[in-house]
Amino acid sequence: MNTLTIIALILAISAAFGLLAGAGKTKPARRRKNKGDIGESRISILNEIGLDENHIGLDNILIPLPDGGTTQIDHIVVSPYGLYIIETKNMGGWIYGNEYDSQWTQVLYKQKSTFQNPLRQNYKHCQVIASALNLDNSLVHSVIVFIGDSEIKTPLPANVCNGGTAYLNYIKQPREARIPLPELPRLIAAIQKLRLENSAENCTRHIAYIEQIRNEARCPRCGGKMEKRIAKNGPHAGKAFYGCSKYPRCHGTRPIEA
Description:
The protein is an alpha/beta fold. The chain folds into two domains: 55-215, no CATH class; 223-258, no CATH class. It is built from six helices and twelve strands. It has helices at residues 3-21, 27-50, 118-133, 164-171, 184-194, 200-214; strands spanning 56-64, 70-79, 82-89, 93-96, 103-108, 111-116, 140-146, 150-152, 160-162, 226-230, 240-244, 253-255. A five-stranded mixed β-sheet has the order 1-2-3-7-9, with helices on both faces. Strands 6-5-4-8 form a four-stranded mixed β-sheet. Strands 10-11-12 form a three-stranded antiparallel β-sheet, with no helix packed on it. Strand 11 and strand 12 form a beta hairpin. Helix 1 runs antiparallel to helix 2 (27-50). It is globular and about 55 Å long. The relative contact order is 0.12. The model is unreliable at 12-33 (pLDDT under 50).
């Protein structure tokens, strides 16, 4: 039995256990949780089986933010080639979008729905980790993985992977080693010290924080606060818009909705 066959069997078993684990929840909540948990468990297994001992995976990392909130990172892979910050999407159907859109579209059984551009979502995660660990941004790599029966219908950057095989191939691409092997345990220890316990209380607070920021004007690039400004030139001169308070370090903008 080859490695890919073993991985496939383990993924099938993990999916079955994921469905059983949610048996006590209401149907909509169970489906949402199971989809997320199953997608994340698949990546955890792939990291364990498909990567070598110099790629160390951490899962479900809840990080405190300066404003008192939290951000949740699905996976971090620490390696000599940098830190891979991984956002998983367990979705089916056709996926449309590009790296600059604020929203992407899923078409499933002829029904359209939109979701946040995961590249933008993961940009904030990368910035948080780089800042907290005092790392150069070039050492922190964003990776998006679609796990499920999905097909990406528009051109997207190479770091958007469709399926586990594409994900492993991307992580394994030859790159220059920039972090000495003896430094890896220190980085892992720093992340473990930084992260919060995945307790029910912390998870509840995180969900409440997410709901709060959804109702506030937040930068689509870094998640920072937005300030009302007036465009000075260009086709929108004289019009009001929201600009990131971290400008010029961040150039995120949002229109002011009527």
